[in-house]
Amino acid sequence: MAFLRKPAFRRGIFRQPLQPETHLADRLKIYLALQKNSLKASFARIWETPIASSLTILVVAIALALPASFNGLIQNARQPVEALETTSQISLFLKPELSNEAALKLAKKLKQNPALIDASLISKEDGLRELAAYSGFGDALAALNNNPLPAVILVKPRTTDADSVSRLLIELKTLAEADKVQFDSEWLQKLQALLAIAQRCVTAFSLLLGFGVLFTVGNTIRLELQSRRDEIAVAQLLGATHRFIRRPFIHSGFWYAFLGAGLAWGLANLLILGVRTPANQLAELYGSPYRLSFLRLTDTGILFGSAIFLGIIGAWIVVAYFLREIDAE
Amino acid sequence: MIEFKHVTKRYPESGEALSEVSFRVERGELTFLTGHSGAGKSTLLRLIPAIEKPSRGEIMLDGVAVQNLRTRQIPFLRRKLGLIFQDYRLLNDRTVFDNVALPLLITGHNPHEVGRRVRAALDKVGLLKKEKRLPLALSGGEQQRVGIARAIVHKPPLILADEPTGNLDPDLAEEIMRMFRDFNDVGVTVLIASHDLALVRRFSRRTLRLEHGKLSEVG
Ligand SMILES: Nc1ncnc2c1ncn2[C@@H]1O[C@H](COP(=O)(O)OP(=O)(O)OP(=O)(O)O)[C@@H](O)[C@H]1O
Ligand SMILES: [Mg+2]
Questions:
Q1: Which residue of chain A has the CA closest to B110?
Q2: pTM of the model as a whole
Q3: Closest listed residue to residue A32, CA positions, set A72, A71, A3
Q4: Are residues A267 and A231 located together in one domain of the fold?
Q5: Is the Cβ–Cβ distance between B1 and B59 less than 8 Å?
Q6: Which residue range forms the structural domain that includes residue B106?
């Protein structure tokens, strides 16, 4: 911290303290006041050049809004998929010749399996009754002289990730009593895989556009450095340290990133608003209570946090490079 | 306070600006540096705050070997000096007040004190009423006085002034010189480069004379 810094010399005229205030609390107060003044001054400078500044802020905002809104949409898609996940089950169709007792015994045995939450038997008779009740074909079914339905055990797996489900499917298929095994939500797994790919794409995309933010802010700061070259030279003649010279530019970087992130937040939510109506209609068609939501608090935090980080790093790199060039002269 | 030992400064473009210059300025002294145009006065003054490095020789400033300082240390040396430049070196897009406040901001002074100290310095050079002006809206002499206010605002123990009265009328020049003498009276070491020989003589202080880069007379 700057206010903790000791003076670089300990002899002669240099031994006197640089400032009369020696208490740490006073120095902290001064340090914070300096930071506040510099932040205000940097903001004022951005405000004074509205066209150039808003161009930078707009580019930063677009680079941030793209990953933020895609990420928001993916997060949105995830919720209903995760909700569906818990309802996924495996239907184990039993061989037609199997007796009811044997079927019941198998169901009991499967219930003991730690990989399963539940295993419930729907006997041939139960199946026929259910079908008659729900399908409205009661009379037609009653006319049949033997029951064509197989007995089914509905199995609920404890974990629904692709690996454990496929292992379970193989295990069930090899049972002597099994005729056919069907995982009711294979499409769900495919959807999940797709979402995972999309998530990866957004991450890669974010990194790329993050560099965009870094370079945009960096380039703007570089131009600002060039135009304030004389001022920097004078400040150096009067004893300005690198830290002192760096400070206003770091604060400019902060403001560009912060304002860019704010605009990006608005743009991303606008985009989500755009797809909200059709998405909600779709959810309604499926009878889902689920509704599209705007950027969550954590995602907003990540958006602002990473933007400010990139803005400050971008400014830092450019100023460090500039100062090294000056010192070499 | 200041000691030059066989200092030579050679510019690749124009040859030796200073040759084998040796002298001492004691603490609390007021010393003049005179010489014709191009004699090397500004060059000599630029060596002390490490704005330039000597080609040969040694410069001691209160026990610190200036030519050996690291880049990182130089700012802390300069904060202890009051520098007045021949070409003023003001920030033309900042007000007079902001220009004078700059050394205080650089050294991290209490912001609540800045206003009072800046006005005290401006009062000393008679520019209290022009604190809100931009430097280019001032006369040459007024700009020069802004530069002087900036050099004294942080009460440095050593003032190096390059032609501080070059653009002032005789009365004002005399007044500014008296101001330097007042500083000297309270213990500030002062080195003033000037070719206004009449003025220098009137103050009858020790005078170093440069001639084509050689220190020809010490008296
Ligand atoms: N940056 C530089 N590069 C090359 N040569 C320089 C540079 N600065 C000064 N000189 C040369 O060094 C010599 C001394 O210059 P200096 O500015 O020290 O003179 P001065 O005594 O201050 O003159 P004046 O009274 O006109 O201000 C001159 O011959 C000048 O051409
Ligand atoms: Mg000169």
A1: A30
A2: 0.76
A3: A3
A4: yes
A5: no
A6: 95-155
